[in-house]
Amino acid sequence: MSLGQIIDGKAHALRLRADIAQAVIAAQAAGARAPALAVVLVGEDPASQVYVRNKIAACHEAGIISIEHRRDATLSQAELLALVAELNRDRQVDGILVQLPLPPHIDSAAVISAIAPDKDVDGFHPVNAGRLATGLDGFVPCTPLGCLRLLEATLGDISGAEAIVIGRSNIVGRPMASLLIGASATVTVAHSRSRDLPELTRRADIVVAAVGRPEMVRGHWLKPGCTVIDVGINRVAKESGTGTRLVGDVAFAEAADVAAHITPVPGGVGPMTIACLLENTLKAASRA
Ligand SMILES: Nc1nc(=O)c2c([nH]1)NC[C@@H]1CN(c3ccc(C(=O)N[C@@H](CCC(=O)O)C(=O)O)cc3)C=[N+]21
Ligand SMILES: [Mg+2]
Q1: Are residues 226 and 193 in the same domain?
Q2: Are 147 and 265 in the same domain?
Q3: Radius of gyration of the chain from its Cα atoms, rounded to whole angstroms
Q4: Of 55, 94, 120, 230, which residue is the catalytic one?
Q5: Do 220 and 197 form a contact (C-beta atoms < 8 A)?
Q6: Is 196 a residue whose pLDDT tops 60?
Q7: Which ligand is nearest the CA of 232, by number?
Q8: Strand partners, 234
Q9: Which of 22, 86, 146, 268 could bridge to 263 as Cys pair (CB 3.0-4.6 Å)?
Q10: Where would I find the Tetrahydrofolate dehydrogenase/cyclohydrolase catalytic domain in this sequence (predicted)?
Q11: 280: in domain
C-alpha cells in the first residue's frame, strides 16, 4: 500500500512544453524567427538514438527548429571540434547539444569546452557551471533544473528544508546541489565514499537520488513524509521471463510507503529533462 503521492513528471513536462510553445508563438508574433537547436549525434548507441529522436520530436511540437548532425563513430575529435566551431559561428543556430556519451577516442570535456557558452543549452560548459556555482544567470543542466521545477511545484518554498543529493556528477549531482543552495535549502552531497548513507538520508526532507545504481535507496533510509526525486534510469533484466524493465535509483514500492511525494521511473524526471532543454533553447534564442 502506497501512502506517497506520485509526482506526475510527464504531466508537469507537458504543461511546461505547452507554455514554451505559447512563448515561441508570441516571440514570432513580435517579429523573432523560430528558435533553432543543433543536435549532434556521433555513433550508433541505441539509447542515444532514442533520446535524440524524442528531443527532436519535442522541439518540433513546440515550434523549435531542430537541425540534426549525425556522424559515424569513426569521426575524429578534430572533425567534431570543427563542426562545433561551425555551429558556434552560425547565426541561425541558438542552441547546441552534443549528445553524450561520445565514442571513447573523443575527449568529451574538450568538446563541451569548445561550445560557445551562450549556445550551451545543456549547461555543461565550465563557464555555465561557474555561473551556476556563483549565482549568476546562465544555462542550468536540464536534469537538475527539471528536478527543481518538480520540487517547487510539489512543495512550494523549500527554504530551510534539509536536502540530500546522492551523487556528485557534473551533469546532475553538483548542479543540483547549487540549485538547492540557491533555493535556500540546507544541502548535503553524499557519494560512494560517504559514511552511513542511510543515516544521512534519514535526516532529509528532500532526497535527490542520482547515483546510477538500481534501487539502491531503500524505504527504511527515508524520513516519513519526505519528498523523493529519483533521477536514475537503469535498465535491468525482468525477474520473470525475457526482456528488461526500467528502474530508478530508489526502491520505489517501499519508498512510496514512507515518502509523502515521490517521482516514478519512467514518467518522473526524464520527461522534465526534455522540457527543460526546450526551455533553455527558448532562453538561448531570446538572448540572441
Ligand atoms: N548532451 C546530453 N544532454 C542530455 O541531457 C543527455 C545526454 N547528453 N545523454 C543522455 C542523457 C539521458 N537523458 C534523458 C532524457 C530524457 C529521458 C526520458 O525522457 N525518459 C523517459 C523515458 C525513458 C525510457 O523509456 O527509456 C522517462 O523517464 O519517463 C531520459 C534520459 C538526457 N541526456
Ligand atoms: Mg541533461
Answers
A1: yes
A2: yes
A3: 19
A4: 55
A5: no
A6: yes
A7: 1
A8: 247
A9: 268
A10: 7-122
A11: no
